[in-house]
UniProtKB/TrEMBL annotation:
Domain of life where this protein originates: Bacteria
Designated name of the protein: PLL-like beta propeller domain-containing protein
PLL-like beta propeller domain mapped to chain residues: 5-48, 54-213
């Protein structure tokens, strides 16, 4: 497979990591920049695989005592340790934490009892982790680290609104967290911290109508937030942040016909890559025409056969090559990896 628009790279052959997965995969980087990918397996178990230092993959590891529903949300903290936030089958928010750099994990810690959907996590400008989730009241809720040791958390606080999917937070180039979420009536809303590390938030702003998926967020090379979502026409749409990191422009259609939410990531050449599951169930990609450009190439097929779960958020490995994980089709529900390689 030779399709690639990143100079010096091609997309490699598909790698079957097996495993029998039941949700969208969730990758994260170890402190030494090796990729670890978390999945929900059968019987609501949490599993992961870690890439070895030689590029091979270590065996599957199950986290005993953890019971997960939905998609896990791993994040590497400023201290280099990974935390994995997740929703339990009885709708509690829990977290497990690495006990040492590149090491194992603690047992589960309950942070909130009774949440409405899966959590999502992001770092504040000062490195403290902030977690967002829908409440059982349909509002957007949040909590954060309350010390710089990153081990304790505040009580949850409601930000209001009416949210219909897992929120998508990101730290923009201006140092403030932006949260995009799907609201009532197939709408896209954003909110943003009023200042770096602030606990106050701007009013919800309507960014688009006709939204039929959870939004995905990533930064362009200038640190501006780019939001992608599936429109009511089944095409990919984009909403981009202004140069002052304060407002968003009008939605623009990128084309494609998709059956799941798009995901996005910044490649090594400074251009955003947008990944979709198309109507043929294959993985397709479109890339910014040039760094920070508002236009994109047409979608090109990377092949594969995707199952019922979503495509992972892409992640850069230690060589700044993009990795994309997904659930394969068929009864096995194996975890598959597509990645860039050097020519």
């Amino acid at each position: 497979m030779s399709i690639s628009t990143t100079p010096g790279t091609v997309w490699g052959t598909w790698i079957n990591l097996q495993g029998g997965i039941h949700s969208e995969p969730a990758p994260v980087l170890f402190a030494d920049d090796r990729v670890q990918v978390f999945i929900r397996g059968g019987s609501n178990a949490l599993w992961s695989r870690v890439e070895g230092r030689d590029g091979s993959w270590l065996g599957w590891f199950q986290y005993i005592g953890v019971s997960i529903d939905g998609i896990p949300a791993p994040i590497r903290g400023k201290d280099g340790k990974i935390r994995v936030f997740y929703r339990t089958p009885n709708n509690n928010l829990e977290v497990i934490t690495q006990t040492s750099l590149n090491g194992g994990y603690s047992g589960p810690q309950v942070l909130v009892t009774g949440i409405g959907d899966d959590p999502a996590a992001v770092l504040n400008a000062d490195g403290r982790i902030q977690v967002f989730f829908p409440g059982t009241d349909g509002a957007l809720w949040t909590l954060r680290n309350q010390d710089l040791l990153y081990e304790t958390y505040t009580a949850p606080v409601s930000l209001g609104g009416s949210i219909r999917s897992t929120p998508s937070p990101i730290l923009d180039g201006g140092g403030r967290i932006v949260v995009a979420f799907k609201g009532v009536g197939d709408t896209l809303y954003t909110t943003q911290q009023t200042a770096e590390n602030s606990t106050t938030w701007e009013a919800f702003a309507l960014a688009s109508n006709n939204v039929t998926s959870r939004p995905s967020v990533c930064l362009d090379a200038a640190g501006r937030v780019q939001i992608f979502f599936r429109g009511s026409d089944a095409a990919v749409w984009r909403v981009g942040q202004s140069d002052n990191y304060d407002t968003f422009g009008a939605p623009v259609q990128l084309g494609g016909q998709i059956v799941w939410r798009p995901t996005c990531g910044l490649g090594q050449d400074g251009r955003i890559n947008v990944f979709i599951k198309a109507t043929d169930n294959a993985l397709w990609v479109a890339v910014q025409s040039t760094e920070n450009d508002p236009t994109y190439t047409s979608f090109q097929s990377l092949g594969g056969s995707i199952g019922s779960a979503g495509i992972s958020v892409p992640i850069l490995n230690e060589e700044n090559l993009l990795y994309v994980f997904l659930q394969g089709s068929g009864i096995a529900r194996d975890l598959w990896l597509q990645r860039q390689t050097f020519v």
